[in-house]
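How a chain folds remains the central question behind the approach discussed here. This step matters because it turns folding into a mapping between discrete strings. The sequence in question and its structure tokens are set out directly beneath this paragraph.
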Amino acid sequence: MSGTEAGDKREQINLAALSVEQLVQIKQEFEQDISNIQDSLQTLYNCKAKYALSKEALESFHPDWKDHQILVPLTSSMYIPGRIKDLDNFILDVGTGYYVEKNLESSKDYFKRRIEYVQEQIENIEKIQIQKSRFLSAVNGVIEIKQMAALKQMQQQQQAA
């Protein structure tokens, strides 16, 4: 058997064979995983929104804005006045302290591609979230069945005594 064949097989776990304590531990792990996934999704949604805003800002540029006065953000709450000198050259922050200079159309295309990439990642992570949620539901169902069986057994023992 090759390495890829072994990697393709998924391990089957018989939930009914596990103890309630083991199931509760698995449940807690999956709840934590789902929480982490939700945090990651929120980060990706925020990132996608920022890219979309940047693309929208680029699309609002007009050729007659040369020497147009604007406010340039220094921080999220501090701005300084500035003038638009060049409408076809933009400096884009591509991450980790790197910047690239692109013309207007290339800049729009960059943000379009980034939005599409982030959307793909969102869709992939949402699929994982659905799988984990389904498994969590299955674990919760088995826990409930085992707790009901234990309760029924206790009632039978009390009636027998």
Observations:
- The longest strand covers residues 90-95.
- The chain has one domain: 20-154.
- Helices lie at 3-8, 20-59, 104-160.
- DSSP finds three helices and four strands in the chain.
